[in-house]
Prior knowledge:
mainly alpha
Amino acid sequence: MSISRVFFSDLKSSKCSSVVEARLLRFWEARNVQRDLFTSFSDF
């Protein structure tokens, strides 16, 4: 599988940019959940 690089400046208002935005939001939310879980367990 080849990896293609897409830069934010190359994205236009299209379906592709919407998919990228959705994936970034999911990734960011998952990171925040993991951080919050780690913080809550470290309080014990």
